[in-house]
Design a protein that fits this description.
Helix content of chain A: under 10%
Largest sheet of chain B: 6 strands, mixed
Distance between the termini of chain B: 36 Å
Structural class of chain B: mainly beta
Number of strands of chain A: 11
Mean pLDDT of chain B: 91
Low-confidence stretches of chain A: none
Strand content of chain B: over 45%
Shape of chain B: globular
Mean pLDDT of chain A: 92
Number of helices of chain B: 0
Oligomer: heterodimer
């Protein structure tokens, strides 16, 4: 597989529940990003990994959000106690200069 | 926060015409990238132009970069209905602690009418 995979594609959850998304980047890519995109807007940066190190987190990433990239391979993004405002498309990208994006996970909090 | 601002926000043209989209940004950059996004899908990388380059071509795409004006343009020539999508510019710059920020604008929604 030569692309970035994200799982699940869609997630509907009740407010207050926890959700976890997974991203499998292209294997030789060191950099991995998580973005959030709402309707009609561009992707907003959430967090960035260089290999297994989380080097930067956006102020958008409240303490309910946590991301990991163990061993510098796949990454997970967890949202605890989801709120309706968390409804968005969550995009993962990997690369070294130009970036390859996954198809995203669309989260709907009801 | 979003650094890039695309202009126009929406553009509608006839198939075969050229489409030009502009992007302005605020801070110094290492490179600038353009992406395409079809409705509800992930982003597809189109082209990257480095800060020391002024123009780059890829197929029907032409990108210019003017670092003195902090602006870039994307030209799609001989447009096709399949070019209908949203187009985003993204600026890449090094920030502290070795971080490499990639910041997107709000996008231009292009509609190509057959």
């Amino acid at each position: 597989d030569t692309g970035v995979s994200q799982d699940p594609r869609h997630k509907i959850t009740k407010r207050g529940q926890n959700v976890t998304f997974r991203c499998d980047p292209i294997s030789e890519h060191n950099r991995l990003y998580w973005y959030r995109q709402t309707l009609g807007q561009g992707p907003e940066f959430l967090t960035y990994f260089q290999n297994e190190a989380q080097l930067e987190k956006s102020r958008l990433l409240s303490d309910r959000f946590s991301a990991e990239r163990p061993k510098g391979s796949f990454s997970t993004l967890e949202i605890q106690r989801t709120e309706q405002g968390d409804s968005a498309m969550y995009l993962c990208a990997s690369g070294n200069t130009g970036y390859t994006f996954g198809s995203g996970t669309r989260l709907t909090v009801v | 926060s979003q650094q890039g601002e695309e202009d126009p926000q929406a553009l509608s043209i006839q198939e075969g015409e050229n489409a030009t989209m502009n992007c302005s940004y605020k801070t110094s950059i290492n490179n600038l990238q353009w992406y395409r996004q079809n409705s509800g899908r992930g982003l597809v990388h189109l082209i990257l132009i480095r800060s020391n380059e002024r123009e780059k071509h890829s197929g029907r795409l032409r990108v210019t970069l003017d670092t003195s004006k902090k602006s870039s343009s994307l030209l799609i020539t001989a447009s096709r209905a399949a070019d209908t999508a949203s187009y985003f510019c993204a600026t890449a710059s090094y920030s502290g602690a070795g971080s490499y920020q990639l910041t997107f604008g709000k996008g231009t929604k292009l509609s190509v009418i057959p």
